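Saturday, quiet lab. Running sequence design on the C-alpha cells for the scaffold JK sent over.
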C-alpha cells in the first residue's frame, strides 16, 4: 500500500470509509467542501496495490499547527501499517510546510489509536468531556511538538 495526496475522484471512497468507520460520519458533500473549498485542509489517502482507497487522513494547517481531523482505515485493511504510513506521510508534509506541532482528539476508549499516536510522539494534554455527540464519550486531547 502507498500513501498519496487525495484527489476529488477519491471522495466516494472516502465517504464510504467514513460510513464504515465512524458513528457520526462526514457526508460526501462535507468532505468535498473541505477537500476542495478549504485552503487550510490537506487530505491523504491510503491506496492498495490495485488502486482502491483503503483509508484516509485529513489535516488542517492553522498557522504553524496541524489539527488532525480524521484518520480512518477500512476494517479489512487494519493492522497492516496503513495508519502509520499515513502519519509518516503527513509528518513529512508538515515538516516541509512549516508545521511545528500537531493536535488531535481521540475517543478515550480507542486504545489502539492512542497507542499509535503515542508511537509518533503524541502526548496526552487533556480531556474534552462529552465531546462525542453519538454517546457522550470523552475525547482525549493529544499534542505532538516537532522534535529536532
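Result came back. Writing it out in full:
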Amino acid at each position: 500500500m502507498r500513501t498519496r495526496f487525495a484527489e476529488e475522484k477519491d471522495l466516494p471512497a472516502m465517504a464510504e470509509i467514513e460510513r464504515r468507520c465512524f458513528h457520526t460520519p462526514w457526508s460526501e458533500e462535507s468532505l468535498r467542501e473541505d477537500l476542495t473549498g478549504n485552503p487550510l485542509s490537506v487530505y491523504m489517502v491510503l491506496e492498495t496495490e490495485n488502486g482502491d482507497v483503503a483509508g484516509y487522513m485529513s489535516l488542517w494547517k492553522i498557522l504553524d499547527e496541524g489539527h488532525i481531523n480524521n484518520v480512518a482505515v477500512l476494517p479489512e485493511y487494519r493492522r497492516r501499517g496503513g495508519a502509520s504510513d499515513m502519519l509518516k506521510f503527513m509528518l513529512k508534509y508538515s515538516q516541509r510546510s512549516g508545521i511545528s506541532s500537531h493536535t488531535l482528539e481521540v475517543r478515550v476508549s480507542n486504545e489502539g489509536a492512542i497507542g499509535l499516536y503515542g508511537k509518533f510522539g503524541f502526548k496526552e494534554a487533556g480531556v474534552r468531556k462529552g465531546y462525542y455527540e453519538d454517546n457522550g464519550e470523552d475525547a482525549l486531547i493529544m499534542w505532538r511538538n516537532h522534535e529536532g
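Notes for JK: The beta strands are 2-5, 41-47, 53-62, 65-73, 101-107, 123-128, 139-145. Residues 82-97 form the longest helix (16 residues). Ask whether to fix the surface positions before the next round.
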